[in-house]
C-alpha cells in the first residue's frame, strides 16, 4: 500500500494514482480541474433553480463613488486563486461598516475552497473570513462603532436579532445566508460567512485591502490599545473555534484527550484542553514540523500516523482504557485508505469518515467525540455500530459561534492567560496570497498560522514574526 499522502493535494493524487489507472482521463490535472469546475457550475445552476432564501442583508456591495480600486484575492477555479483589482466597497446598507484591513490570514477552511470542495463558488469571488481593521466609514444606523477604531470582525455575519443570535449562537443566524441549496441539503442553513462561496451567502471576504461588514453594530469587536494586532486578529475565528470545540465536547479536569490534526485549530485546542485541566493530550498528525511544534511549544504527546499507520492500535497502547475525549481538527480532503481514495476520486462520497471512525474506536465506552473540522457532504463506511454500542456521544460542533466566546477570549488575552502569538509562525504581505495558498496547502516551512499584512498594517509588534517571503520558506514539511 502506498504511504499516506501528506499534502492536501491527495484528492488529485488519488485520482492520478495507479489504483485508478483504468480511468486514464482522470489522471490528467486539467481534466480534474475541469470536473471540479463543472461541479461548481452544476451547483450554481441548482442553487439558481432552488432560488434564494430570504435574508435581511444583501451580499453585493456598492463601489465607492470615486471609483477607487483595491487589491484582493479572488477564486477562479480549483487551485487557481489570483490577486485582482476590485472596486473599494462603500456603505451599501445603513448598518454597514467599511474597514481598512490591517490584518488578515489563511485558514484550513480556505483550503476546502482552494480544492473546490465547497459548492457554489463563482469565478471572481473575493475570499477571506478572518480579518481585522480600522474603521473607514460607518452607515447611519451604526452607533457603537466609530471611524478610526481598531476592530476585529467575526467570520460569520449575524443579524443580532433572530432566536439564534439572541442566544449568541451567531454562526447559526437564520437571516443572513441566501443559499437555498444549503437549505435543501441540510434542512436549514448557517449564517452568511465572509468570503466563503455562495453556499454561505456570497459575501466578499477580507483577504483584501478593504471590506464591507454588514450589520456592523453586531459583527465587530473593538480592540483595546494594549492588545497587539497579531493577537487580536485570531478572535475572528481560530480562537473561538478551538475554544468552542473544547467547551462543547466537555473537556474536564483529568481527561485524556486525543486531537486529530495539528494545524492552527488543533494546536489551539490542545492548549485550551490543558487549560481546562486535561491530564494528557495526544496530538495526531503526520506533518513532522507540526508534530514537533506541538511537543515543543505545548508539551503534549504526539502520534505520527505515517509511523503508526494503525492509529487506534497505537492509542490503545498509550491509553489502555481509551480516550475520554476525541476532537477532530483535521481535514476531509486527505483520505488514507485506498477505498476512500477511490470512492472520493469517483465522487461516490464527498467527505471521508476515517478520522471520525478512528476517534469512535479509540475513545472509551460512553466517552465523547467532537467534530470541529469542517465537513461538507456525505461519507461512506461510517462505523455506526461502534458509535451506538459503545454509547459514544458524537457531537457536531457546527461552525463556531464567535460572538459567544470573543469577549471571554479577549479577556484571557488581556490577562495574559492565553497568548495567541504561540501559533503565529509567519508574516507575509497581501501580494503573497497566491503563493501562500500553495505553501499552506502543502504545510511547507513549518507553517502554522500566518499574519497577512496590507499597506494599512502596523509594523510587527514585539514577539511577532517579521515580514517574510513565501518563496524563502523552503520546501521542508
Ligand atoms: N467549525 C469551525 O467553525 C471551523 C473554523 C475554522 C476551521 N475549521 C476547520 O478545522 C479544521 C482545521 O483547521 P486548520 O486551519 O487547523 O487546518 P489545516 O489544514 O492547517 O490543518 C489540518 C491538519 O490535519 C492533518 N490531518 C489530515 N488528515 C489527518 C488524519 N487522517 N489524521 C490526523 N490528522 C490529519 C493535516 O496534516 C493538517 O496538519 C479544518 O477542517 C477547517 O476547515 C472549522
Ligand atoms: Zn477560518
Ligand atoms: Zn440572526
Automatic annotation (TrEMBL):
Cofactor: Zn(2+)
Highest taxon above the source species: Eukaryota
GO molecular function: oxidoreductase activity; zinc ion binding
Pfam families: ADH_N (PF08240), ADH_zinc_N (PF00107)
Protein family: Belongs to the zinc-containing alcohol dehydrogenase family.
UniProt xrefs under InterPro entries: ADH-like_C, ADH-like_N, ADH_Zn_CS, GroES-like_sf, NAD(P)-bd_dom_sf
Lineage: Eukaryota, Fungi, Dikarya, Basidiomycota, Agaricomycotina
Signal peptide: none
Record protein name field: GroES-like protein
Residue ranges of every copy of the Alcohol dehydrogenase-like C-terminal domain listed in the record: 264-330
Keywords, alphabetical: Metal-binding, Oxidoreductase, Zinc
Domain Alcohol dehydrogenase-like N-terminal: 94-224
Amino acid at each position: 500500500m502506498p504511504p499516506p499522502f501528506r499534502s492536501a493535494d491527495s484528492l488529485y493524487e488519488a485520482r492520478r494514482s495507479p489504483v485508478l489507472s483504468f480511468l486514464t482521463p482522470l489522471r490528467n490535472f486539467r481534466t480534474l480541474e475541469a470536473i471540479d469546475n463543472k461541479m461548481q457550475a452544476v451547483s450554481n445552476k441548482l442553487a439558481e433553480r432552488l432560488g434564494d432564501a430570504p435574508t435581511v442583508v444583501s451580499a453585493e456591495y456598492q463601489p465607492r463613488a470615486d471609483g477607487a480600486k483595491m487589491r484582493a484575492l479572488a477564486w477562479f477555479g480549483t487551485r487557481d486563486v489570483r490577486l485582482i483589482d476590485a472596486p473599494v466597497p462603500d456603505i451599501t446598507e445603513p448598518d454597514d461598516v467599511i474597514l481598512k484591513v490591517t490584518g488578515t490570514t489563511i485558514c484550513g477552511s480556505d483550503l476546502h475552497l482552494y480544492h473546490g470542495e465547497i459548492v457554489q463558488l463563482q469565478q471572481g469571488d473575493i475570499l477571506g473570513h478572518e480579518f481585522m481593521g480600522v474603521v473607514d466609514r460607518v452607515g447611519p444606523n451604526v452607533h457603537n462603532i466609530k471611524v478610526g477604531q481598531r476592530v476585529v470582525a467575526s467570520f460569520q455575519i449575524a443579524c443580532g436579532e433572530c432566536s439564534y443570535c439572541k442566544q449568541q449562537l451567531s454562526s447559526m443566524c437564520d437571516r443572513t445566508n441566501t443559499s437555498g441549496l444549503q437549505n435543501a441539503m441540510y434542512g436549514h442553513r448557517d449564517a452568511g460567512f465572509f468570503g466563503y462561496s455562495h453556499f454561505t451567502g456570497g459575501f466578499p471576504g477580507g483577504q483584501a485591502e478593504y471590506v464591507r461588514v454588514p450589520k456592523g453594530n453586531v459583527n465587530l469587536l473593538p480592540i483595546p490599545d494594549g492588545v497587539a494586532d497579531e493577537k487580536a486578529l485570531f478572535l475572528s475565528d481560530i480562537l473561538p473555534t478551538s475554544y468552542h470545540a473544547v467547551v462543547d465536547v466537555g473537556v474536564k479536569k483529568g481527561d485524556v484527550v486525543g486531537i486529530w490534526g495539528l494545524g492552527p485549530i488543533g494546536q489551539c485546542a490542545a492548549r485550551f484542553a490543558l487549560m481546562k485541566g486535561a491530564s494528557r493530550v495526544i496530538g495526531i498528525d503526520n506533518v513532522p514540523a507540526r508534530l514537533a511544534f506541538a511537543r515543543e511549544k505545548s508539551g503534549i504527546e504526539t502520534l505520527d500516523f505515517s509511523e503508526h499507520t494503525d492509529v487506534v492500535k497505537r492509542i490503545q497502547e498509550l491509553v489502555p482504557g481509551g480516550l475520554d475525549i476525541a476532537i477532530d481538527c483535521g481535514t476531509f480532503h486527505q483520505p488514507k485508505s485506498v477505498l476512500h481514495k477511490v470512492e472520493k476520486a469517483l465522487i461516490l462520497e464527498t467527505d471521508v469518515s476515517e478520522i471520525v471512525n478512528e476517534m469512535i474506536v479509540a475513545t472509551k465506552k460512553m466517552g465523547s467525540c467532537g467534530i470541529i473540522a469542517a465537513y461538507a457532504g456525505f461519507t461512506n463506511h461510517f462505523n455506526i455500530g461502534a458509535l451506538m454500542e459503545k454509547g459514544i456521544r458524537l457531537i457536531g460542533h457546527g461552525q463556531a459561534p464567535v460572538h459567544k466566546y470573543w469577549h471571554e477570549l479577549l479577556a484571557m488575552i488581556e490577562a495574559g492567560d492565553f497568548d495567541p502569538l504561540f501559533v503565529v509562525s509567519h508574516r507575509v504581505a497581501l501580494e503573497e496570497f497566491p503563493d501562500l495558498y500553495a505553501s499552506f496547502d502543502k504545510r511547507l516551512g513549518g507553517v502554522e498560522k500566518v499574519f497577512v499584512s496590507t499597506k494599512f498594517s502596523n509594523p510587527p509588534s514585539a514577539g511577532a514574526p517579521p515580514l517574510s517571503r513565501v518563496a524563502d520558506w523552503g520546501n521542508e514539511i
